[in-house]
Amino acid sequence: MKIDRVKNPLTETDPSREELEKALNFAEAVADEGRQQVFTLRSQEAFGGDVYVAVQSHTRELAEQYGMSFKVCAEGRQRLLKPEIAEQVCAIIREALNNACRHSGSDVVLVELCYGRASFVARIVDRGCGIAPEILAAGGKRGHWGMAGMRERAQQIGGTLSVSACKSGGTEVCLNTPASVAYPLLLRAA
User: How far apart are the C-alpha atoms of 42 and 90, rounded to whole Å?
Assistant: First the structure.
């Protein structure tokens, strides 16, 4: 953004620089939220709870935008999630993918969707520079709400979220949602 060009000549201790950084962070957050809302609307309308199709669509867009490669795979019997759960799952995956694109420096990102009997698990793994231990310990970067937002969304749907540094480099985001919450009940014929 053009704000960066104005900010760079300022010294680290200049109060104007801090104000510009706050404004830039806020503008990025607003833009991200707008993109997220559009993605959520598209996901609900076009994909109707099919997280796999929604993720495929989003990774195609990101591949064009960032020039990265994405591998999306599904394990287990692929099925629709409850619409309200799919919405939150897609938002979490989208945030994890956007973070990987912006911060990891990775050339490829893996998305695994595991449709298990006990739970639905989404794993997003990049082969990038990894996440700083102090950011992990703090639960996110100061002034940024991506990791906190992902955790809040996971809690809202009765799931758990873990973010960890991979031993070989890179970052793994793992969302685990109980099957009883994730999948619609199927009515059995008498």
Answer: 11
Q: How many domains does the chain have?
A: 1
Closest CA to 94 of 154, 151, 54, 46: 54
Specify whether the CB–CB gap between 32 and 149 falls below 8 A.
no
**Phi, psi dihedrals of residue 146, rounded to the nearest 5°:** -60, -50
Q: What pLDDT digit, counting tens, does each position of 97-146 carry?
A: 998 998 888 889 999 999 999 999 999 999 888 777 777 766 666 655 67
Specify the CATH number for the domain of residue 57: 3.30.565.10
Query: With a threshold of 0.70, does the pTM exceed it?
Result: yes
The label of the residue with tokens 């064009």 reads: 64
pLDDT in tens, 55-94: 999 999 999 999 999 999 999 999 999 999 999 999 999 9
